[in-house]
Amino acid sequence: MEIYNGSATPLLAILREGIEELSGMGAGTEVLHYALKLTLSLSGGYAGYVVRKAEEDVWEIDGVKTLYIPKTLVEELSQRDGLYRIDDELYRFLFEELQVKIHRVMPIKVSGALAGVLLIVDQYERGVGPQETFGTLQEACLSLLAQYTSILLANIRIREEMKEMRVHYEEIIVQKETAEKLASLGTIAAGLAHEIKNPLVSIKTLAQLLPERFDDPEFRNHFANIAINEVDRIGSIVSDLLDFAKSSEPKIESFDMARVIGDTLLMLFPQLTQKGIMVKKRFAEGLPGIHGDNFQLKQVLLNLFINSMEAMSHGGKITVDVFKGEDVIHRDRLIVKVTDTGTGVREEDKIHLFEPFFTTKSAGTGLGLSICKKIIEKHNGEITIESVHNQGTTVTLMLPL
Ligand SMILES: Nc1ncnc2c1ncn2[C@@H]1O[C@H](COP(=O)(O)OP(=O)(O)O)[C@@H](O)[C@H]1O
Ligand SMILES: [Mg+2]
Questions:
Q1: Which of 87, 149, 238, 388 is the most buried (most CB within 10 A)?
Q2: Which residue would you say has higher pLDDT here, 278 or 111?
Q3: How many A from CA of 391 to the centre of ligand 2?
Q4: Where are the domains of the chain?
Q5: CB of 41 closer than 6 A to ligand 1?
Q6: Is domain 8-165 annotated with CATH 3.30.70.120?
Q7: Which class is domain 248-400?
Q8: Which of 311, 318, 372, 314 is nearest to 342 (CA)?
Q9: Distance (Å, whole) CA 191 – CA 264
Q10: What is the pLDDT of residues 38-61, one digit of tens each?
C-alpha cells in the first residue's frame, strides 16, 4: 500500500480499495488492524498501535499488553471523531504507559460507546517532518474510515450475537420437543394403564376360579385361551409404547397406512370412549402401501387425534378418510383427512397454527402441529388445516406414494 503523498487521487484510491478489503473481514481484531494500516496510509503516519476494549475497564494494546484507561479519558475519546492531535494530558498518559510518543488518535465507537482507539506515531519521529494539519479531503477520508470501521464492528458484534441466539433457540426447541413427546406419552400411558388393567382383571378372575374348576377340561381350555390372548394384548400395548418412547432415527419402510391409523386409535381408545367421541374410519378399497417412517407418522396421527380430542370436551365425532389422490396434481399421493366436530379454530389464530409454541390451551406446548409439519415435510408431503370456528376442523395430510 502506498503512503499518502498529498494529492487527492491516491487518497481516494486508498480509501476505496481499503473499504472493499475491510468489507470482507470477519473478526473485530482483524478489522481494527486493517483500519490502522489504512489510517497510516491516509495520514502519512509512521507507526501505530491498536487499542481494543477487552472487557469493562480493560483495554488491550495489539492484543498483548493490558492498559487501564481512566474513565475521564474514555469519555473524552468517546466525544471525538476522526483522527486528531492529542492534548498534553493524553500524550503524557500514553507515554508513561507505553514509553512511546503518540501524536494522534482515532477513536472507534460502536453504537456510541468507545470500542477501540488507533494510536498513531507521526512521520517526524523519523525526521521526515511533521504534517501539522490535514487537508479537508484527507480529514473527510479519515472520518469516513472511522465511521465505516465502527459500523463494521457493530455488524460483526450483531452477527456473533445472532449466532449465539440461534444456538440457544435450537437448544430450546430440542428441549420443548422432548417435553411435548413426554406429554403425549403421559396421555397415552394414562389410557394404557386401563388397557392393561382390563386383561389383568380377567386373568385374575379366571385364576381365582381355577382351583375349584381344575377338573373341568372346558374351563381349563377357556382359561388357557383367554390368558394367552390377554397376555399377547398386554405385550403389544407395551411394545407400542416402547416404540413411541424411543427417539428413533427415521427408518423408511413400506407400510399400510390404514393399519397405522387403526393402531394409533387403539392407543387412544380408552380416552375416546370416556369422552364420548365416536370414530368413523372411511378407508378406500385397495389402498397402496406407503413409504415412510412408521413411528414418526404414528406420532403425527397421535398429535392430530389428541388435538381433536382436546377440541371436543363434550363428545363428538372424528372421521378419518384415507384415499388415493385423483386429479393430475394429487395422483401419486395418499391423502389422509382427520375431521372433527370440535371447537374449530378462530380466524385470527389460523396463520399461527404451525408456529412452534403457538397454543390456545392453558397446558399446551404449542409444538404438536409444528412437529407434525416437520415430519410430514421430511416425508416430502404436505399438511394443511381447514377449520370453521364452533363447527370443526379438518387436517389433511398428503403423502407421496
Ligand atoms: N383439531 C383442532 N381443533 C381446534 N383447534 C385446534 C385443533 N388442532 C390444533 N388446534 C389449535 O392449534 C393450536 C396448536 O396446536 P398444537 O401445535 O398441537 O399445540 P397444543 O395442542 O399444545 O396447543 C392449539 O392450541 C389449538 O388452538
Ligand atoms: Mg397438540
A1: 149
A2: 278
A3: 18
A4: 8-165, 168-232, 248-400
A5: no
A6: no
A7: alpha beta
A8: 311
A9: 12
A10: 888 888 777 888 888 888 778 888
